[in-house]
Amino acid sequence: MSYDFDEIVPRLGTDCVKWDGFAPGTIPMWVADMDFKAAPAILQALQKRLDHGVFGYERLPREYFDAITGWFSRRHGWSFSQECIIPTTGVIAAYSASIKAMTSPGDKVILMTPVYNCFFPAVRNNRCVETDCSLVYHEGKYSIDFEDLERKASDPLAKVLLLCNPHNPVGRVWTRDELLRIAGICHRNGVFVISDEIHCELTRPGHGYIPYGTLPREYVLRSATCVSPTKPFNIAGIQIANVVAADPEVRRRIDRALNENECCDVNVFGPAALIAAYNRSEGWLDELREYLWDNYQYTLDFLRENIPGITVPPLEGTYLMWLDCRFAAPGGVPYDGFSSDLTAHLKDRHGVVLTAGTVYGKDGEGFLRLNIACPRKTLTEGLRRLAEGINLYINTHN
Ligand SMILES: Cc1ncc(COP(=O)(O)O)c(C=O)c1O
């Protein structure tokens, strides 16, 4: 490996959301950022921009758009023209404005739950109504209930499906077949698809993902995709993202909504970081994925040995493992509030922070989300505490 992902970079005391604000010595394995330094090319680009010393309003150079189209066509076989790109401050801003653009107050937005928690307020903030299409969890694997999706999509008030591809928190990378079925149902029923693809680079080594934008054109015209280098290159605090939309009228509406939400200007460091990420950090990303995959294998082995009752659906994408902890509930049946009780117990008594599954919707009861994007040493200690905490919980509650 050319990059040292084992390096421990102290983050405590830097006002970071992940580490600060807990009791001393706590290991955070919750919010989705990584404990690794960004790729050297990104650090150099940011340093260069910093050294200039003037941070006035900036326009986006041609190189910015070239970097995005170049990356997606080279890496993912997805070609689109530069006029399809609408820059903004973040993926949340991107999908929220896209919802606003494609709905009227009172319309319904379909979510495949359990799903990324910030999807819920985006629906409410646009005065829409959430319609859940629960994912099916069967024999340790997640899939889509297409009959239910068809039912929900056929409601005349259903106007948007907010898709998460790859899916946070269940770790699925949707296949072309699954995406085609989703697209067919939405198209038949006049439901516009917003695809959040922020985790798209973080698939298993050797396995890609299918961009929604590579589906047949009639489907793509009724969609908008939200992408960003922030998640895979660990620069979430830089805040930069893009909407890609093929239809000019859809773009006009999203552009208008971003303007109304006042989030169409990016900060001066965003473009520098994005260009360095997409143009000069591919090798770093490939090594990162190997490291994350090793962490995943290590975690699976550890859990099998030390918490034998736990089930983990296969992680196809993201660095977020979705732990089925229902076996640890009294009598094996989770009561309302079990996941949050268990996370409180792990945090307060064992100094390790995970996220309660119910943060991602009621279907998440009984589950915990574990972030494994940290140096192996941190992971090892975090897992030790997790096992100690869960086993003690079982002994005292069963
Ligand atoms: C699915 C998903 N979308 C969006 C975001 C946040 O995006 P941003 O920070 O660019 O607003 C996250 C962060 O965890 C995420 O998991």
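qc> DSSP finds twelve helices and 14 strands in the chain.
qc> done
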